[in-house]
Amino acid sequence: MAKDYLTGRIVFVDPTCFSDSQQRPGEIGKVVNICNQDKDVLTIEFEDGTRNAYRAEYLKTLAPKKMMLDSVIDHQHRFVKEASFKDMLNVYKLATQNRVKEALKLAILNSNTRFYCAINCKDYREIKEDARKYQVKGKKRNM
Fold first, then answer.
1. How many domains does the chain have?
2. At 36, which CATH number?
3. Among 6, 19, 44, 109, which is most exposed with the fewest C-beta within 10 angstroms?
């Protein structure tokens, strides 16, 4: 089986999908297992050691850095005077420093940063798999 890009990835439970506290909306965890029968069912381990299973579309992770930066640049005119623009830049900065948990905590704070800096895990996997298909042998494409 090909490499799965989500194993070990830091994610958060999309707070717009769940209101039930049992589902832990907005909480950050790590993908520790992918179901063999359905690759879109991911087991997340939270900081307190508990585990829950979720569908990939209900979990978000940081968008690939290039995608995040392109979104911020393309939409900067809309947010220049808003605090969320500064937050988006800070999320990007933290991501480039591999401070993923801190970046996700900041990305969760408001709808703009969630929209422009995070992506659902199903889409993230598809982007990474597509990039791999078109990758030239011997050269790594940064995303």
1. 2
2. 2.30.30
3. 19
